[in-house]
Design brief:
alpha/beta, eight-stranded mixed beta sheet, seven-stranded mixed beta sheet, 32 helices, 13% strand, globular
Length: 929
């Protein structure tokens, strides 16, 4: 090892202070240092004008003649190396595991590894100043370092590149040697919450033997930790908390942090039906969410939210970030610190689930940042039956924190005060720097994965230890007894009082016939009511003043005159002006931008995110324009002025990171917390949405049925067969349609700009919210026939079905039902063949299927003897199977490709040939796939 490697940026403060002291009074520093600085001054007189400390590091980094340095000074340097080692590696040698010996890591912190020995223990070293104490013996220095870095809290932070953050952490953990210092009342409060956690689990274990509850036993100190965190955060100005967690410990958090009535929890254990069974199927008790208003001990009002979650671990992490961002944007746009996201993880999940990486990468992005999340890992040291050594390659389950240079505190979950201390550190860090911070709460799991599972099958040795291990409440009570804080019967009295309340609630709950489920975050949903399918089929007025529409068009077709833009942008904006003001033929992009502008003038906000959405994958949107010289962003929709009737809504559009799962989860959460915002996620290509399949299955299609939560997220999925291969053709329409039932979402495939305009407006103009899945075009974005008039925008409405505008109904023999782009391909073929005996009906809304409208259209064609379902997708894809199941008014002849495993062929020639054959089958009933 280079004997002078310690002379780096980590010690510049120490050198600066000592050097300043030398300059002021050379005799005041130790003789070896004085000799060093004298030599340094002489040796660096020919250097440039850099600061002495920077020069010192530069000189010391060069090969030196060590014989010129006294032994004492050399040992000062060795002590600095030791300090550096504690800071960077001390966390590897902590006492943080309550039930296992720690793995052995080398090199250790033994003195011999640093050119020191026990003979040096009583020597006084100036290097002590590097840890913010006065010169003292090596023994005292090691004592300080051991307390700070190697007790029940291990701190990882030296990979953080910002020296100010490192210095802040060093000062924070250096205070009182990183040892908690609480008053008697604070200690009693910690014990009280710890008793609630332990007693709650014991009560459930005796009353509901063998039932799944995913207990917190082995990690009960989480409860006093969260309680202290929330109380302290409120004092620092936090007003809303958004929490996400998996099932482990969820019931205890609901009861002891959120104040959920345990009568309701007991009713859920008893398996009673719900009080709202008509539109709500419910979920298991350890998936349910809750919103509560809570008063802190000092009387501050706070709002706390625990988001509902599925069994798919870590999915909820993205959702809570979106909820937090929506609340920040709505209530505290100038101070995002007032909404605090708290993400609780399991050790196996945080290390193994890829969505965690996607979420962490959002942390500092403009479109997704939330001012810092506090991550807490409930570390059981086992995932179901899998040992931690088989669950990750990294040293720690929290090593994902290093992606964003976030500090990590590893804490012994048996030490209640250390847990609270770590939580308060995490809060202070988040409030100071607005960045993520991780706490690794190292405990154990008392039972198996659930209470009916046998853990000794796979971890017999570990569970022998756990069976004999004292719980954290009793450990802490013994400590407080020895300190004289409590008396002998204190804990017994606490436990009896708490359990008496539980007994009363259990008795009361068993007198109730139904379980009451309180919908999550209803404070954000005032004025909105749930809608059944009949309500979803009602027409909604989406007309809009032509005069105001014209004003919007003027704004979005004028570039700022004080900025220079590339010629193509100038032409594009001028073309938009002509299509509105001269040609009266508005394309898809104008429909979209006008829809956003119209909603904004009515006071609705608009948020769009996804990959490349600012320009648009197919270069059609250009909602954000860049100036040629400076690349300054220009968003024309933000130039709109408020009307006399409404405050102008905000328009935000963000290119996302290259993620589907995480970003869809985030945007779903945003829509969940902001029903008056048109929240849109657009896929780069429609089939890329399958990267977010868990969100689609667990939240978008089922959340209202499971958790009684409405959501108005819009998903735009480019779809259409245009010879681009298997991955850029189909948005997998069949999968969305398969998920449709009752009243869970809208599915649409629009073919005109005006219909898309009204569809987007309808999404906000209803008194309810449903997810909206739209299969959007690619080639139709610039198709000359795909245009609408200003009149259709202003005074039209969304048309669930579009009848054939050019058909001679009496002459028609074949009535063809289709969706999307395929309609225009069929019309072109009809025109090429001069056929008048065939008509095309476009189903623009696939779910809910507009049966009554279809009946009327069918009845208007008196001479049809051939009813056809036509699609460009293979037989086993697209909407065919859905139509077979839901459209039984008549028998349909299928005109499509045969079934294939891949959505489309890779060869352009083969794709074109297959597409032509699907079209031919529409016109010739004797052909079949």
């Amino acid at each position: 090892m280079d004997r002078f490697s310690f002379l780096n940026a980590a010690h510049t403060d120490f050198f600066a202070e000592l050097y300043d002291q030398y300059l002021e009074n050379p005799d005041s520093v130790e003789p070896s240092w004085r000799s060093f600085f004298q030599g340094f001054d002489f040796g660096t007189t020919t250097y440039n004008d850099e600061s002495p400390v920077v020069q010192m590091a530069a000189v010391a980094a060069q090969p030196q003649d060590c014989s010129l340095v006294s032994d004492q000074l050399q040992k000062e340097f060795n002590v600095l190396n030791l300090i550096e080692a504690y800071r960077t590696r001390g966390h590897l040698f902590t006492k943080t595991n309550p039930v296992r010996e720690r793995r052995t890591y080398t090199p250790t912190l033994e003195l011999s590894n640093f050119g020191l020995s026990e003979k040096d223990l009583n020597t006084v070293f100036d290097a002590a100043k590097a840890i913010r104490i006065q010169p003292c013996t090596l023994k005292e220095i090691i004592g300080h370092l051991d307390n700070i870095y190697c007790q029940h809290i291990g701190v990882e932070y030296m990979y953080i590149r910002d020296p100010k953050i490192r210095e802040w952490i060093q000062a924070k953990i250096g205070y009182n040697d990183n040892i908690p210092k609480f008053s008697k009342e604070e200690k009693k409060s910690i014990l009280g919450k710890l008793n609630e956690a332990v007693s709650f689990e014991n009560f459930l274990h005796t009353k509901y033997v063998g039932q799944k509850r995913f207990s917190l036993e082995g990690g009960e100190t989480l409860i006093p930790g969260l309680d202290a965190l929330i109380e302290a955060a409120a004092e620092k100005g936090v007003e809303q908390f958004v929490m996400g967690m998996a099932h482990r410990g969820r019931l205890s958090v609901l009861a002891n942090i959120f104040g959920k009535n345990t009568q309701d929890i007991f009713s859920e254990f008893d398996g009673k039906d719900y009080d709202d069974h008509a539109l709500f199927d419910g979920d298991v008790k350890y998936h349910l969410g809750l919103t509560a208003d809570r008063k802190t001990k000092t009387g501050k009002s706070i709002n706390i939210n625990l988001a509902p979650n599925p069994s798919h671990l870590e999915t909820v992490g993205a959702v809570i970030e979106g909820i937090a961002r929506a609340k920040q944007d709505r209530y505290y746009p100038q101070d995002n610190s007032k909404v605090l996201p708290i993400a609780l993880h399991g050790d196996a999940a945080v290390a193994g689930q890829g969505i965690v990486y996607e979420i962490v990468q959002m942390a500092q992005l403009d479109g997704y940042k939330t001012g810092g999340t506090i991550h807490v890992v409930i570390n059981n040291q086992v995932g179901f039956t899998t040992n931690y050594l088989d669950a990750r390659s990294s040293t720690y389950c929290t090593d994902i924190a290093k992606v964003t240079l976030s500090p990590v505190l590893h804490v012994n979950a048996d030490d209640a005060e250390a847990v609270v201390h770590a939580m308060l550190f995490a809060l202070d860090f988040r409030m100071e720097f607005g960045r993520d911070v991780f706490i690794d709460l190292l405990g154990y799991r008392k039972y198996g994965h659930n209470e009916g599972d046998e853990p000794r099958f796979t971890q017999p040795k570990l569970y022998k230890i756990i069976a004999k291990h004292q719980n954290s409440r009793d450990i802490y009570a013994s400590q407080l007894l020895s300190e004289g804080v409590i008396q002998d019967d204190y804990v017994k009295e606490l436990e009896e009082k708490y359990k008496a309340t539980l007994e009363e609630n259990l008795e009361a709950s068993r007198k109730k016939e139904l379980t009451i489920i309180t919908p999550f975050m209803q404070n954000e949903w005032q004025g909105f009511a749930k809608a059944d399918q009949a309500k979803m089929k009602e027409k909604v007025d989406t007309t809009f003043s032509k005069e105001t529409l014209t004003d919007i068009a003027k704004v979005i077709t004028e570039l700022p005159t004080d900025k220079k833009f590339i010629k193509k942008i100038e032409k594009l904006i001028n073309d938009r002006k002509e299509m509105f003001f001269a040609n009266d033929k508005l394309d898809w992009a104008m429909a979209e931008l006008l829809a956003y502008g119209s909603l904004m003038t009515e006071g609705y906000d608009v948020r769009i995110s996804g990959q490349d959405v600012e320009r648009g994958t197919f270069s059609h949107r250009h909602a954000v324009i860049k100036s040629e010289d400076s690349e300054e962003k220009v968003v024309l929709l933000r130039h709109l002025k408020p009307t006399a009737e409404n405050k102008m809504g905000k328009f935000n559009i963000f290119n996302s990171l290259l993620s589907e799962y995480g970003v869809v989860g985030f945007d779903y959460g945003y829509a969940l917390a902001s029903p008056k915002t048109l929240t849109i996620w657009e896929a780069q290509f429609g089939d890329f949405s399958n990267g977010a399949q868990i969100m689609l299955d667990q939240y978008i299609s089922a959340a209202e049925d499971k958790w009684n939560n409405q959501n108005g997220l819009v998903m735009l999925l480019p779809h259409g067969y245009e010879g681009q291969g298997a991955e850029h053709s189909s948005a997998r329409m069949e999968r969305y349609l398969q998920m449709c039932a009752n009243e869970n979402m809208f599915i649409a495939d629009c073919t005109t700009p005006a219909n898309f305009f009204h569809l987007l407006r309808r999404q906000m103009k209803t008194t309810y919210r449903k997810p909206l899945i739209v299969f959007t075009p690619k080639s139709l974005l610039r198709h000359p026939s795909v245009v609408s008039t200003v009149e259709e925008f202003a005074n039209g409405s969304f048309q669930e079905v579009l009848d054939d505008p050019s058909a001679d109904k009496k002459a028609v023999k074949s009535l063809v039902f289709c969706t999307g782009k395929f309609y225009y391909d069929l019309v072109a073929e009809r025109e090429a063949n001069g056929r008048t005996d065939i008509a095309f009906v476009r189903i623009e809304q696939l779910f809910p299927l507009p049966i009554e409208q279809l009946k009327d259209i069918i009845a208007s064609y008196p001479n049809v003897d051939d009813y056809v379902w036509a699609q460009e997708e293979p037989k086993n894809m697209g909407a065919y199977s859905y139509m077979l199941m839901n459209f039984d008014l008549l028998k349909l002849r299928l005109a499509s490709l045969k079934a294939y495993s891949a959505p489309a062929a890779g060869s352009y020639a083969r794709s074109k040939k297959r597409h032509a054959s699907a079209i031919a089958m529409v016109f010739d009933k004797n052909l079949f796939n």
